[in-house]
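Exercise 7.
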Amino acid sequence: MQRDAAIPQFAQYLPRRFPERRTVVDYCSDVRQFAAVCAKPWRDVTMHDIDDFVDRQRQSGLKPATINRRVAALKTFFDFLAEDSGELQWPNPVR
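Solution. The predicted structure, written as tokens, is:
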């Protein structure tokens, strides 16, 4: 999936997983924030990229609950990418 198309498609996918919740808005925002600091193609993102993102979040003074939600958003996003690609063995860098 093309990098630019992934987040809008993720936004369409989320209401099926989290109906009637604010999760769609928060998760998409979280993934956009990650994308702003990691310009790699999605398939090339590693656990180290996720760790760097988390470290930046901590250094900026965010609360642990916010950081945990952002990590959950990324985990869900990369699960979505694997499912969408049909390659369920695609390693999720958040795991």
